[in-house]
Amino acid sequence: MLGIVALTSALALTVVGCSRGGGGSDATGGAAAASPGITDTSISLGITTPLSGGTAGPGTCTVAGITAYFGAKNAEGGVTFGDGKTRTVDIKALDDAYDPQKAKANYDQLKDSVFAMTAGLGTPTNRAYREAAIADEVPQVLVMTGDPIFSETNESPWQLGFVPIYQNEGEAFGKLLAASGENHKVAVLYQNDDYGEGYLEGFKSAVEGASNIEIVKELTYEATDTAVDAQLTELASSGADVFFNAMSITPLVISSLQKAQQLGWSPSWFLPSNTSSPTAILQPGGADAFPGVYSVSFSKAPASPAFADDEDVQTFLAGLKQYADYQDMPAFPHCMWSFMVGATLEQAFEKMTEPTRENFMEALRSITDFQAPLMLDGTAVDTTVDGQPAVSSVVVQKYNGQGYTTVESFG
């Protein structure tokens, strides 16, 4: 059975069915036929994401953030669209457990009743229904994957990623490391798919020609693996003082941190943004034992003392509790990211002059220099650059025992 995320009555987001109401006009001057999932009073969005299994933590966040954002908007009466109509935004989320086949089945279940698919986590799961969405002309937008194929307009006008592509993250760390001027030996463990390969590609492009950086060992693991102890043991013997760990599975990151300590290996680490949570990963893994753990970010971390009194953070946390029934401090950045997705979608809705998917994609791809709530200084939403997702700018940060501090140099 496909699991539908249980939303409490406090957030009660009702899914609308296929509708043909709406405003706008066609080429003959008549009313433009509305796409499925939108009426004069509401619009529905679909999400397929892991709500169970090893990636349930970040997956649940992809629903919670956007639910919090639009829950608050709905409480205010809804979002005013560019056609002058005010609509509430309804969310329908299905669990795919990070299984591509389930993700495709979820899409098939949702496609005729939602206006667009959004926010879902995972490269293999988003890829699983990408071709179908293109054929059906269903927007698959602001999804949580750094796969660059989702941001190439020439490949498809119906997709757009949200988070920085994997190459952007790997390149940012590689540049920081190369600029240190010190000699470093790097060991690499990466997921054996487009996710891991993208991170490694970006990193290698940044250190290419840097005489102070030597990659001494590269190994892979499968996303379905339950342990990587053998790889850690082999990498520990490489003599590397830097570990580039392009890994997406939360339990494996924790066990990797612990295994390295058991082996007496203490390199500096680089972790992807989606598997670098201080409370959910670094603290359980004992990251304090290492000279430095680095990652990249574009969003404020509510748990960081630096943002304790930040107005955006306070609004975000209140929305999570009231509209998404998410009472804890977010352990994963996906909660913040999906909140930003909501704000970005609102920008597109405000530009829509017709209730159609085509007009929505035009509006979505016209957003520039948008400072979404929770964005770090130096980052912004820009959907106009072909080959880049909505967010392509990141800052490198270093774990300080509680959260992250932005760094200008490696060390």
Automatic annotation (TrEMBL):
Keywords: Signal. It comes from the Bacteria. The keyword Signal applies. It holds the Pfam family Peripla_BP_6. This is ABC transporter substrate-binding protein. Residues 43-397 form the Leucine-binding protein domain. The keyword Signal applies. Belongs to the leucine-binding protein family.
